[in-house]
Amino acid sequence: MLPGISTEQLRSRLNRMVADGMLTRRRYREVPPRVDYELTERARELAPVLGELARWGYEWAWSPPREAERVDLGAIFRLIPGLAGPNTPASGRIELTVTDGNGGEPISYMVTFAPAAATITERERGRADAHMRGDAAAWIRALSPDGTRSGLRATGDRALADALFAMLAPSPVRHAMNSPRSRCSAKGSVRPRTSPNPAASSSDPTSPGVLRGS
Questions:
Q1: Residue 2: pLDDT band by 50, 70, 90 thresholds?
Q2: Of 54, 117, 150, 212, which residue is most buried, by most CB within 10 angstroms?
Q3: How do 130-134 and 92-102 pair as beta strands?
Q4: Domain at 88, CATH number
Q5: Contact 194/183 with Cβ under 8 angstroms?
Q6: Would you place residue 175 in the very low, low, confident or very high pLDDT band (cuts 50, 70, 90)?
Q7: How far is CA 83 from the centre of its chain?
């Protein structure tokens, strides 16, 4: 179950996406019943568009989470396939673990980098070339403009971690340009509207990968 959405809302949205040709649905004759939803080729072609929108958000609209705001790290990680491109230098598999990600329980994401591409799966256990672990607060700090990774435990291929953060972390230069102090000092300029964290409270079922439900 995805956080922030009821079972009926999720079922309605998934059914609409199936009807629109964005998802395929496969039912299994099992007890309890199981249904797999997978993105179609039509939907996968949207991944670069979503990735560029996310990149813009990271560059221009990132802000520290508010007191009552929840950052959905899974929503950020699921955008990785859309952010990968021809200049992605790494190749291999990296496991990302949020130690308090699912009701206080650890949740892992396996990212596979290939030339000019990336895929992500959830809760997959297997061989990885690198591992990164930390609680939600440590991940949020690592993904902030300051990029402080001290709260994360990293092992394995360092190049994979560097490639990951090169895609996800906002540019310090642009963040500085968009900071309140910078906007105030630029007299006569138009101030951009302050937007909430683009990944906060996000539970988008269209994220890349296979969504399993009942």
A1: low
A2: 54
A3: parallel
A4: 3.30.1050.10
A5: no
A6: very low
A7: 10
Per the structure, the complete domain to which residue 202 belongs is given by 45-206
For residue 94, give the nearest of 55, 133, 58 by alpha carbon: 133
Cα(69)–Cα(77) distance, integer angstroms:
18
On whether residue 106 sits in a domain, the answer given is yes
Residue 200 lies in a domain: yes
The closest alpha carbon to 143, from 166, 119, 121, 160, belongs to 166
CB-neighbour burial class of residue 58 (10 A; exposed 0-12, middle 13-18, buried 19+): buried
- The domain tally of the chain equals 1
Quick one: pLDDT at residue 1? 52
Q: Determine whether 86 is exposed, middle or buried from the number of CB atoms within 10 Å of its CB (0-12, 13-18, 19+).
A: exposed
- 168 three-state secondary structure: helix
Tokens 């092992």 correspond to what residue?
A: 155
